Each structure stands twice: as C-alpha cells, then as structure tokens.
Amino acid sequence: METGFEHRKRKHIELALSQAHQAVGLAGWGDVYVPYQSLPEMALSEVSLEPGRFFVCGMTAGHSDAQKINRNIAAACVESGWWFGLGSQRKVFETGVADPSTDFLLQDFPSVTVMGNLGISQLIEAYRARDLSRVFKLFSAVHPKFFCIHLNPLQEAIQPEGTPDFRDGFAALEWIVQYSPLPVVVKETGSGMSVSVLRKLMTLQLFAIDVSGVGGTHWGSIEVERAGGDASVHPFARYGVPTVTALRNAARARVGVRGATPEVWASGGVRDGLHAAKSFCLGAERVGVAEPILRAATDSSEAVLAVMRRFEQELRVALFCAGAQSVGVLSERYAESLRDLA
Asked: Which CATH number fits domain 4-15+42-341: 3.50.50.60, 3.40.50.2300, 1.10.10.10, 3.20.20.70?
C-alpha cells in the first residue's frame, strides 16, 4: 500500500508537469543580453563545452514512479556527461531503508556524477541530535560525488505536512561542512536567494551555491493546490527572488569576501541554451535544468538525451555569436560589453 509520503511525491511530479505551476516569464531573462558579434572571427566547430557545465536538478525519489524517471535521467547523463541531482533522500533518512528509486545507480550507472540531496529541516534534526550516522547513511546508498542541502522555507510553510522550523539552520550547515567527507552544495528550490543569505553562505567552505530563482517550477504554487487553495490568486504562488536577480545578488555577496568563494550555480526557469548563456554571463559556473528534463524522463532516456543535446547546441550557437570559444571567454565578453556601455 502506498504511504502518505509516496503519494505526496507522486503528486508533486504530476503537478510539476502542469503549466499552471510554472512561473514562466518571471526569471528575468529579458533583462540580460548576450553579446552579439556580427563578425565573430571563428568557426562554430571551435566552440568547446567543458564537461559538467550542465546538471540535472534534483527532482524526485521515494516512490515507485521515480525509478523509471531516474533511470532515464541517469542513462542520458552517461551519454552527455551532465551531472545528476537526486531528489530528496528524506525517505532513506527517516526509515534507514534503501530507496529502490535511486539505489540502482551505483551498480547500473557507476560513471555518473551523482549529487545527494537532503532538506535543511532534516539536517537540522540530525544536528540537534548530533547524529551524523543518519546523514552518512545517505552517502553509502548511492556514493554521490557531492552532497546537496536544499532550502525551501516557502514550501515547508505552505505544505500541509511541512516542517517550517529553520532554527539552527546556519549552525547545521557549519556542522555538515565540517564533518562531511563530500563537498557540500547549498541550493534553493525555486524561490531564489537574497544578498544577506548569500553573504552568510559565502563564509562557509561550500563547494557551490545554487541560487535557484523564481522562473520555473514554483513549489509554493504546487503546495497551495495540494492544500486545497487556488494558486491563480494566492499571494505566495509566485513569491520569491527571480533567477536573474538572485545571480546578481550572488555577485554582490562575493564582494569583500576574503579568500576563495563557493561556485555559483544557476537554476530556475532555464528553458533553453540561451538562458544558460545568460546565466554564465551573470557569473554562474554551472547551470541546472529541471522541468524540460523531467517531462522527457517520463518518456525515455532517448528523449532526455535529445533535450540535453538541444541545450548544448543552443549554448554553442550563443557562444559562437558572441565570438567566444568557451563559457569562460563568454563571461569576459559580457564584462567587456558592460564596460563599453559605461
């Protein structure tokens, strides 16, 4: 019999694929212009995309339908070199039992770069009990290369089963960074990040921060519907920081920080390779894709791979038209264009 947790996760997938819960047009992409060179003095074939520039955002786990979705994503990641973000491993954390929707990864797809995933609420629970064993059990399940902690206060506050208690959150992050054998990533879930939060996170020895802004699947909207409300008129159904603003917030937060800072990743409404190019212009080191991958993953691994190849080709075209052979050069071209306007 399906548990309440499994039903919730299955419903999340159904609602995440509904256009009613996509904050389309709110990411802010229209305010960013990728430099355009009419005479790029290079060939399209000279554009180089380094492995790992794209990743699949963590989306689903913990229910039977998730295994097919995750298998299709993992198989496509083997071919493309994209990194694979797991959905929340909360079920394993709470039960200590292996999750069949993800535990096949180590055996069947050992070459995939996997990112583990746990909510800050569960990390706080472990921190208060000073129980690292429950967290480390998640590592042994899939042998991830990175460990992601997701922040989702809006979702937790609206969700009927939510746990909106984020006290000790920063202390819990300091704790896991200190003891984790894996690099730690802190990520939002589609509502973006403020400068003040980013400044605090920049002081931690994190591998990366995924700003994950408003512009894609909006979990506040999804939880409003699950709670019986009307997302079309609910004040929090599109609430948060747009992706472009969140990326600019990250650039501001980096100013004045001594020493190396975490990588900045972009996700939230990335729907094509041009959006990815704009993210790189704004300082992102990696870009995450969610809804287009999820939609394809309900079909087949070939459909997922086709989406990945489309994103890559669109990014190559953007780089070529900017006269940039790589993402790093694109960032330089964008900085030059801003200086020309000054």
From this structure: 3.20.20.70
